[in-house]
Amino acid sequence: MTDVSKHDSIAAEGAVYYLFGATGDLARRKLFPALFSLYKEGKLAEDFAVVGLARRPRTNEQFRADLLESIGEFCRYKADDSQQWERFASHFVYMSLDINNVDGFRELARLTADLDVKFDIPGNRLFYLALAPELFGPVSFNLRDGGMLESKGWNRLVIEKPFGYDLESARKLNAQLSQVFKEEEIYRIDHYLGKEMVQNIQVLRFANAFFEPLWNNKHIANVQITLSETVGVEERGGYYDKSGALRDMVQNHMMQMLAMIAMEPPSRLHPEDLRDEKVKALRSLRPFASSEEVKANVIRGQYAGGELNGKPLSGYREEDSVNPQSETETYFAARVHLDNFRWAGVPFYIRTGKRLPVKTTEVVVEFKNVPDNILFAHRHDLAPNLLVIRVNPMEGIYIKINAKKPGVDNVVQPVSMEFCQSCMIGINTPEAYERLLHDAGRGESTYFTRWDEVAEAWAFVDRIAEAWRGNSPALELYPAGSWGPARVEQLLAEDGFHWWPVNGQAEDNVIWISGGPK
């Protein structure tokens, strides 16, 4: 297990990377570009090979042509050095594989032995399963039975979300994987943990003396986490209609971001210590004890027809592959609490949805205001101080404070100071999959989810799903292009708060310093 303080430029160890689902969308949009970026930056040395695996027949030449097309369309680097490209592409081979046929895995083992010799690879194996979760177990068994795990090097299994569809299915899946791989060999990807500013949360909290002492219920009034998308379900209608926002976004992305914000400082900068603290935070989540509590604290919505920027948008039930009577939620908002000494009494408001006005992911930490009867507070309507962590698409933070307006009138006004992380690198900001593939190749597990994290998140989410099944609240429709059902504002108003404007929405009467909205 590596220390997270090790420098990011360390090259991944030489290994054979097996991409199951190599003809799929994830490989084309994310994995191939990530591998090329790592190679371009020297984080992937020459002692590697990539085996693309899928059912459809392809030649190596066709596979490499697909690879070049993928990089041309989606990679932040261009394949403009022909010699470098030829060296990179020579490491890629394709094999048609029926994942239910163990003989195919034995053939794959023979191919691997040739690749080890050709590229001087020390027997290390990284299996990336870009497949449906019900296939993780069968593939793992065939990797074992086909002799793929008998090399002298390490074996690592990288799997995509969703990890099951509820706690019960996740447990069954984990039991299958545990028959073949040790927990420390399993890397469960949540790509949000690879995002620059999600990883920066720990640095902001634990490396700055003026944040951590205030990071508690004595000074923080509430925390707001927003993950909004402007797109609808697009071509994922069939999958999404069986999943919904609760399983697709809340169980993984939202729970992970909440844990990063709420966790206690780890005793060491070590992957297991960091993940221990995230598990403790998830265990502190107050479970909803009844369907009435769910109704009072959770909002489930679905987008109806609407418009955005003058463009008409269809409703969810009119999308391709969606049941015209579907009750699947495309919007989720909730008020949750953590019952521990740090956060007792502080509401965390989380919301996520499709067909919202702005694409953004950000965390707003609202601090308690100064007492009403002292100094400036009794003469001015002071705004609370805010710390805003912007994860996507703009990366950075801004802090809102109160300051005197220039002049002789002694007027106090809010002032926002901004740090733009993405402005430092621009379009060459590394993608989340680059970081995570690089980490998996180095055995760095910090930003992968451990089984007990997954189980705690499912346990919390399953209570909500169960309440919806037993006494399902009315699905609240909202116009596509809006910020969700009307009751979302009421959820915060009940506690005396409101949603703060998110990235892309300039605040009124705020003076910006260094790069804010004009």
Tally of contiguous helical segments: 15
Q: How many beta-strand runs?
A: 18
Low-confidence stretches: 1-7, 512-518
* Global mean pLDDT: 90
The strand line-up of the biggest sheet is: 17-8-11-12-7-13-14-15-16-18
**Helix amount:** 25-40%
Name the beta content range.
15-25%
Task: Please summarize the sheet with the most strands.
Answer: 10 strands, mixed
Secondary structure category:
alpha/beta
| Shape by Cα distribution | globular
Rg from Cα = 24 Å
Separation, N- and C-terminal Cα atoms: 47 Å
Explain how this protein is built.
The chain is of the alpha/beta class. Helix content is 34%, strand content 20%. The strands form three sheets. A ten-stranded mixed beta sheet has the order 17-8-11-12-7-13-14-15-16-18, sandwiched between helices. Strands 3-2-1-4-5-6 form a six-stranded parallel beta sheet, with helices on both faces. Strands 9-10 form a two-stranded antiparallel ribbon. Helix 1 crosses helix 2 (60-74), helix 5 packs parallel to helix 6 and helix 10 (271-283) packs parallel to helix 14. It is globular. The two termini are 47 Å apart.
